[in-house]
Amino acid sequence: MLTDDIAGYAVAERTRALGPEVVHAAKRCVIDWLAATAPGAVIPPASALTEALAEDLDRGRARLFPSGRAATLRTAALINAAASHTVEFDDIFRDAIYHPGTPTVAAALAAAESHGASGETLLRAVIVGYEISTRIGATMGRAHYKYWHNTATVGTFGAAAAVATVLGLDEARFGHALTTAATFAAGLQQAFRSDSMSKPMHGGHAADAGALAAMIAGKGVTGARDILEGEVGFGRAMGDGPDWRQATEGLGERYNVTRMTVKNHGCCGHTFAAIDGALALKEKYGLRPMDIRKIRVGGYSATINVCGSKKHSTPFEGKFSLAYVIAQALNHGSVRLDAFSPERLNDPVTHALVEKVELYLDPEVDKTFPRQRAANVEIETADGRVLRHHQPTRKGDPDAPLSDADLDGKFLELASPVMGEGKAKALLAAAWRLEGLKSARELPFGAGRSALRGAAE
């Protein structure tokens, strides 16, 4: 059975010598997760979840980030994962159309803290969760992404695998954690075709459901061993009957955790290539908003389907409007958290640029999705010039990676307003030496109430 093969890999991974590049990549994933989670922790839905789940807080050995407030394992995984997916700065595995850090790191951290696991065990849990879930996601392919949100569905496997690793489940019980996770998996794309809080909740549910699957498997709850490849299993019900051989290809030999995309813009990743292309033209030709008559963007199918609206009256709408984020980039030179402030959302110069954007499906660009995320950007100027740029990838993708210094800068930019600069720097330093920590709880969480309140406001 497929899940038996995957479980065999996972158990062997606990004692396998890991190359320094794999360990380093896993630490980058944890740091990037912390960066994305900090600003999301002080706004809905995470702030609402802390009220709704109050009876599961102030007890347990897991912690909410960044406050350090005590929580039970599942509650910490749920709230932290939802927070990490809220401001749209979390990592991506390009080939699977999937944000693995959101559910995987959240669940791994909650389990490691709850069970007194070391920093090395936490990193191994992250690696196993990434390797298993990214391969399942890539195997399911575009057919799955037509209706389902991969971070919600595939993410459940990442969380289950991570928690099962921390719990030290044997092969049989590890397999049952995965099979139960498969039938817990859910999350519809329609949830983020309009303004709602369901999308970050998808990540929260995946972390919670995956953690539960592993926890109950550890106590003897069994699942259907052929749940992935069976006649009415995950692959057929939620895809087009994929070739499951891909799911075990390279396991333990090639590490997907080393091929992550670190987001450089605070919005939907399907807009990134177009943003990068527009910024390249802006820089090359010194373009100002008043210089621009028309903007044409050739994108791939998901860019059209997910980000084709010009609505931007709320932060959520703005993050999923290619026209808006392109206008932001051309007007202000970046798309960071401040791009979705009330002032920016109502800026008349940006409004005017939004109306000049035309988005179309480019067959050549679409042909290579999801393994390549490209865009063609054309800007017609007021003086009659037509400026063109082909953006073959996104800044932050594996073939155009952000450096460690870039990642540090991103972390401090996003975490410092929430934690305070000193605490953010201390946490960053500890995360870079995570494999040497005797306990995952040595990561110095904790932000003063005034800092959290100020960041929320």
Explain this structure to me?
This protein has 20 helices and six strands. The protein folds into two domains: 2-263 and 402-456, 2-methylcitrate dehydratase PrpD (Orthogonal Bundle); 269-391, 60s Ribosomal Protein L30, Chain: A. The radius of gyration is 21 Å and the shape is globular. The strands form two sheets. The chain has a four-stranded mixed sheet. Strands 1-2 form a two-stranded antiparallel sheet. α5 runs parallel beside α7. The N and C termini lie far apart (51 Å). It has helices at residues 2-13, 20-40, 46-52, 73-84, 101-114, 119-145, 150-167, 171-184, 198-217, 234-237, 272-285, 301-307, 315-319, 322-332, 342-345, 348-354, 363-367, 404-419, 421-432, 449-456, and strands at 57-63, 70-71, 292-299, 357-361, 375-381, 386-391. The longest helix has 27 residues, at 119-145. With 457 residues, it is an alpha+beta fold.
Essential attributes:
alpha+beta; 2-methylcitrate dehydratase PrpD; 2 domains; two-stranded antiparallel sheet; 6 strands; 8% strand
Topology:
Elements: H1 2-13, H2 20-40, H3 46-52, E1 57-63, E2 70-71, H4 73-84, H5 101-114, H6 119-145, H7 150-167, H8 171-184, H9 198-217, H10 234-237, H11 272-285, E3 292-299, H12 301-307, H13 315-319, H14 322-332, H15 342-345, H16 348-354, E4 357-361, H17 363-367, E5 375-381, E6 386-391, H18 404-419, H19 421-432, H20 449-456
Parallel strand pairs: 3-4
Antiparallel strand pairs: 1-2, 3-5, 5-6
Helix pairs in contact: 1-8, 2-4, 2-5, 2-6, 2-18, 4-5, 4-9, 5-6, 5-7, 5-9, 6-7, 7-8, 7-9, 8-9, 11-14, 14-16, 18-19
